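Notes to self after the call with IL:
- keep both proteins in one doc
- input above output, always
- annotate only the second one for now

Protein 1:
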Amino acid sequence: MQLFQRLGEYDYEKVVFCNDNDTGLRAIIAIHDTALGPALGGVRMLPYPTEAEALDDVLRLARGMTYKAAIAGVNLGGGKSVVIGDSRADKNPALLRALGRFVDTLAGEYVAGQDIGTNSHDMAVIRGATRHVACVHESAGGAGDPSRTTAYGVSCGIRAALKATTGNDAFGGRHIAIQGLGNVGFALARFCHEAGARLTVTDIAGPVLTKAARELGAEVVSPDAIYDVECDVFSPNSIGAVINDDTIPRFRCPAIAGGANNVLAEARHADALTERGILYAPDYLVNSGGLIRCQEEVLGKATEDFTVYSKVANIYEQTLHVIRMASERGMSTAAAADWIAEERIAGGE
């Protein structure tokens, strides 16, 4: 009963549990809302300790995608899928095609894309079982990995945060602490470095840290120490729920803006940041660049890269709009972003 209560509370349209004995696939597809268009969301593959944790993640992520599309002005809905397993050991073409067959049964209500544990080559494999897939590698005729576009959007969100906290949106001389150097995080680090920022970075993978130090002059710290770094902006670009009761007292920054999804462990943590005087740029707005690009692919529009990037650049003004609204209405930036998104969802356009 608890599951059905939760689905009803946030108006999820559909949740599909996927099991394929031949390939060992265990996955969950969640569709939160399709008022604005078909639900788009990445395929996340992680070794979740329990099925309950996998379900919790997919539900949070699907709902976040709905809000991301709404606030970014994208004509898509929110969905997500999670595959239970270690992407380095368990992922194979047969398993991916099995997932594709489940996606295909949804007849276009859900469109799969890449996420943690999957990539554009995997999307090309999934396309062998369904046409309802985005982020397919260029070699297979797709638009490829949207990570760089996402990272560019995050850089626009960071600029907005700098503008709001310092009066100047330039990266030159600023100190950015970046948590997570995956495809998005490393591309973001390069954007910041090339614009003149000083970087402190962390990741669980040693080689990428060595690369960041060598190519970007970044200072490297341990995963836990990143929360204590005194900086202008803390940028989470890895897992969610990193803003929580334990980390909020440790932050030594005036602003937080990053590419990770669901960085607030609970909604109340947005208010806790406000109380500490820390500006939070809502994650689903700041990291919506990849979704803006995917809209062109999913809806069949041929758009040049410069046009996509000009659309992604609007994240800067939209983030400032959210910050102003929060200040004027005496609410957190998270609440202001939710209000804007919910207004568009309710209008269905």
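Protein 2 (the one to annotate):
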Amino acid sequence: MNGTVLRTLGVALSLTFAASGAFAQDAKTAPKGAKAPQSVEWSLDAVHSNVGFVARHLGFAKVKGEFKDYSATVSAHPQTGKITGLTARAKVASVTTGMSKRDDHLRADDFFNAEKFPEMKLELKSIRWAGKKFRAQVELTIRDVTKVVPFTGELLGLHKADFGGGDALHAGYEATATINRQDFGLSFSKVAEGVAVVSDKVDIRLNVEISRKL
């Protein structure tokens, strides 16, 4: 066997072993089965969340309120915490503004009619991210009316912590939207000296913390 043939054979063997080694390394480091999921279930931390709103009284004073009883099913990216899916419900009878007489009026038929329509619902239909900020289209149901409402918001932060149950990843959010309450059948329309007692436009303000165990 001449020198040229030996050199050619040596090169071929070297390439074969190199390729075999690379394949073995890839097989060792590559994840088994399907790719890592882009969305997993997270839990709502209701203790550190708030479902609130702001309405104007007589056109200038801001009246703040919130719903105390709510729940949500959330899906998000396992590492970044960016939300991909959300369905939330709130018991309208849990509304509170700091004044019991006003709260009773909000539960009545002029507004939510809590007896006939006990829940309001929010469902994420689409979301577009730009860095940590997002724009979302949300299907909102109040009373028996469902409309798509645009929300804007931001992922405020992501942090790993152990509060006694093991390591968990926590993500904080804020989101806002403005609706016309008349569109949803909240029809109270009293006027005082030509000015609406309660504004038609209402700001929805969500502050939410979600987490998942690691």
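Annotation: Helices lie at 3-29, 100-107. The chain has two domains: 1-30, 40-213.
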